[in-house]
Structures are given as structure tokens and as C-alpha cells.
Amino acid sequence: MLLFENKEQKLLNLLKFTGSPFKKFVSTGEIKEDIGLVQSRQDLLDSIINILEKDENVILPIIGDIGTGKTHLYWALKHELYYYNIVYISLENVIKKFYNNTYSEFIENMGIEVLRNIARRLCNKWGALERKFGFFHLADVEKVKKEAFEKWAPNFENKEAITDIITAITTHQLDPYKKIEAERWFLGEVIDIRDLSRLNLQHDLRERNNAYTMLKVLVENAMVSSVLFIDDFEKILSMMIPIPLEEQKEEVFDRSWLYGAMQSPETRTADKILKKIIKLNKINGLRIIITLKSPEFYREIIDKLKEKDSTLLNVVSAPIILSNFIEEDLTLFYKRNLEFFFGHINYFDYLRDFSNSYYPLNENVLKYIYNKTNGNPRGIIKLLIKIFNEIVLSYEDLEDILKKYQ
Prior knowledge:
Elements: H1 2-18, H2 39-54, E1 59-64, H3 70-80, E2 85-90, H4 91-94, H5 98-110, H6 112-125, H7 141-151, H8 159-174, H9 179-186, H10 193-199, H11 208-221, E3 226-231, H12 235-238, H13 245-250, H14 256-259, H15 265-280, E4 286-292, H16 295-308, E5 320-322, H17 327-344, H18 349-353, H19 363-373, H20 377-393, H21 398-403
Parallel strand pairs: 1-4, 1-5, 2-3, 3-4
Helix pairs in contact: 5-11, 6-8, 7-8, 8-9, 8-11, 19-20
């Protein structure tokens, strides 16, 4: 009996030294999430994967209230679909220079080697492997570019943008003296007029047509499938709220004649972003996931899409509903977090000594947490943080602390 008590005290001492296993309650697209999914979420994840693998161009809405774990689902997808290129964006971070910022997120996620490989394969496809003359390999740059313009460029809408991209690709692969500058262009760096002139390019990737076309080239020619995960998509609706009538009357300068109707700058910006997101659907093989907080937002988004392009509804999948945890999910989530935490600090005795126990909490405390939060994952984590902070920082006995939560 004394030996077991010593094991419990050792675990408590370790917690007081290392800190709480629960330190954050908000998952983000930037901070990697390592904890796996509970069973009910695993079934949901399997449904999402089936949809993504079945449809190359799909818009998949995921509906979940605040704190139900929509962003955590992104990390679960990253872990499960490791052979996919899954990119997370938040609208508020890409609202300006949408295509350029989205492209930058793809490059950061995929890495420069993917771009180099794409440029090499495209150049070879255009005839870069043919020898111009003699024994040594020397490609005819103009012939390669001509082949690209005749057979490849017609697949793209904007001729100026695809001209820049073909020039950048052939320069990167076939002109060793300009390779570094061309690679800077690929990476989306700001290129001054002098360097653009030296590369024989009109614009860098700040120009939206260049950024969109380069994103299309990247996604359609990568060796892996791509998924764009757009979090909190309903924010675009809040930006589209029209100016109230009473505020319109108070304006000293009536701007309505400029725009045909009274619209706030935010409304016009949101309208442009929605059109750009719709245009992303023209990129072959790009699957899009959008997260929304409620079914009402979903219906509003559907109405907006119908206004812009009714044919787009054909690629919008039925929404996936992300509900709160069931009680069994909480116990599994709690145990997995503790196992991950103690494994991370190399305290492997935890698995041996407490594999069949909820220590330092107990079943009654976990039941209290579930009932108090109604199974909301974020609420659960916030309450676990509170309890474990008391265990770590308080001088009270563990039994006295737990009595408050039973």
C-alpha cells in the first residue's frame, strides 16, 4: 500500500516540477497539434477523407460551434493524409493580396524543392532535353519557349501571366546566370524593376493574375493532391453587412453614385474575396474545405454562391456536422493527453502504474467536467487546465481540490 502511495506522490511531485499537461485550449493553424482523435471524431475524419479522395474538385463545408475542434480537425487531416498537400489559411490573414498570400502558404507548406521539380519536368516536356548542337547538352531556349506557348499556354486564361511564368521557368532551368533571381520570383519575393527587366518579366507575384496563375501551375503539376483548408469562413458574411439606412443619410458625401449602390469598403472587399475563392475552383485537383460555426451561416454561404455562380453548387458537398464530445470521448481524450505528456518527458512508469487509472483525477471529476461543459472540447480543456493548475500550484491536498469538482 505504501509503495502505491509513493507512486502517486511521485507523479504529483513530477507535475509540480514540470507543470500542467494541459496548457492551451485553442488549436491554431500555425501551432502543430500532436494529440490524436477520439473515436467519434475518427469516424468523422474517415467520412471527410472518403469525400476528398472521391472528388478532385470539391468544396466541403464543415459546421461546428465555437470550441468543437474545427482547427484540431485540420491537424488530424494533416496526420492522416500525410501524402496530401494540406494548406491552412485564415481569411483575416489573407484578406489583402489573397492569391499572393495563399500561394505563399502553399510554398511554405510544400517547399522550394517541389517548385524546382515542377520547373524541371515542365521544361523537359517542352523539349529542353534536346541538344542544340554538338556533344554537350545545350538547349535551344527560344524553341523550348515556343513549344510551351503553342501547346501549354492555351490552357490558361491570362496570356500576360502565363508568358511571365513560362519565361521564369525556362530562365530558371536553362540560364544558370539568372537562376537565383528566377527562383526569388518563384518564391514570391518582391522584385524591383531592374531585376524584372533583366529576367524579361513584366510583373512579380504581387500582381494577382500572376499569383493566381502560378498557384494553378503549382497545384496542377505537383505530384501530390492539394487541399485548401479555409477556417472561420463565415467571417466573409460579417463583412458583407450593408450600411444601415440611417447611417447612409448621415453621410456628408454620398458615394453611391461611384459604386451604383451604397456599399461599405468591407462589403466590396468581401465580395471580391468571394469571387476569388470561387475562381479557385477552376484549379484542377484543388479540394477546398471551409469551416462554419452554424447551419445558418451555411445557408447564407450557399445563397451567396448561388448569386455568383449557380453551377458552383454542383461541387459543394453536403456539410459535415462537428458535434460535441460524447462522454467516452472525454475519458479517452484525457488519457491520451496524459500518456503523450508523460511520454514526452520520458516518464514511462505512468503507462505501467496508471494505465487503468484516471489519477490524479477520478471518474467522478471527469463526469463533472463533461456535464459542466456539455461535452464542448474547448470548454473541457479550459476546465482541465483550471483543475491541473490548482493541483500544480496549490498547497492543498489533492482530495480537497477534487472535492470542488465532484
